[in-house]
Amino acid sequence: MENTPAHDPLVIAGRTYHSRLLTGTGKFKDLDETRRATEAAAAEIVTLAIRRTNIGQNPGEPNLLDVLPPDRYTILPNTAGCYTAEDAVRTCRLARELLDGHTLVKLEVLGDQRTLYPDVVQTLKAAELLVADGFDVMVYTSDDPILARQLEQIGCCAVMPLAAPIGSGLGIQNRYTLLEIIENAKVPIIVDAGVGTASDAAIAMELGCDGVLMNTAIAGARDPVLMAGAMRKAVEAGRDAFLAGRIPRKRYASASSPIDGLIG
After folding, report:
1. What are the φ and ψ backbone dihedral angles of 189, each rounded to 5 degrees?
2. How far is Cα 258 from Cα 128, in angstroms, rounded to an integer?
3. Is there a contact between 110 and 138 (Cβ–Cβ < 8 Å)?
4. Active-site residue identified among 27, 106, 125, 186
5. The CA-based dihedral angle spanning residues 92, 170, 209, 185, taken in that order and rounded to the nearest 10 degrees
6. Which residues bind 1-deoxy-D-xylulose 5-phosphate (predicted)?
7. Is 84 assigned a ligand-binding role in the annotation?
């Protein structure tokens, strides 16, 4: 019982969550598929791009909040599509107005349209401005341990290093830097971007990440709802494996049934 989700909560900005799988809301064929995949993932935090998603700013159009209501989910507005700190800050302030003072945001400031790799200089600048303005900032960044530490020192409530470029599905490309970030962090570390399948999510959790955020890996699957369920199980299994503690790697095996002490 000690390691069940209820007894191993994820805490972000003072709020407790039982699910360590965070999901995106874009790229699904319609809002119903978004709803069904989110439910299959058992996600409690769902992120949305303020610049691309209607949450009330366009009256008369389908509203994401009708299928993912804020009284059931923590809505995590993000700054996808922003390429400057000023643009990202402006977008977060718009989200706060639309969501009645909501302060939890996902900051991402991009530096390259092809790879969607983060502009770390602009990210640092935006993080400082947003924290000073009272936002709880979960920040998408590169897998640089020094940068992760700086973002934590600024006051970000979660650091979200990429595993690989957004939407690439390549999985974790540099376990060493990710481990460095995890081992030195005092805030949740959530892998964001690059996950392709369930085994990628399990590996991230086995390394000690506090959670995984994904969108394309689910929405782009042949069966998004089925993949969402697979990701939920992978995150749970990876977390359990991390808590259980794996056996050391060895060059050769030791017998499961040793011969020492056998009669005759």
Report:
1. -110, 120
2. 59
3. no
4. 106
5. -70
6. 167, 193-194, 215-216
7. no
Question: Cα–Cα–Cα angle for 13, 19, 23, nearest 5°?
Answer: 85
Using CB atoms within 10 Å of the CB of residue 109, give its burial: 0 to 12 exposed, 13 to 18 middle, 19+ buried: buried
* 101 known member of a binding site: no
Closest by Cα among 107, 116, 65 to 88: 107
- Mean pLDDT throughout 132-160? 97
Does 134 appear as a known binding residue?
A: no
CA atoms of 250 and 93, how far apart (whole Å): 53
pLDDT digits (tens, 9 = 90+) for 38-76: 999 999 999 999 888 888 778 888 889 999 999 999 999
Look up the pTM and report it: 0.91
Paired strand residues for 158: 138
**Is 106 designated active site?**
yes
- 159-200 pLDDT, tens digit per residue, is 999 999 888 999 999 999 999 999 999 999 999 999 999 999
Which residues is 48 bridged to in the sheet?
Answer: 77
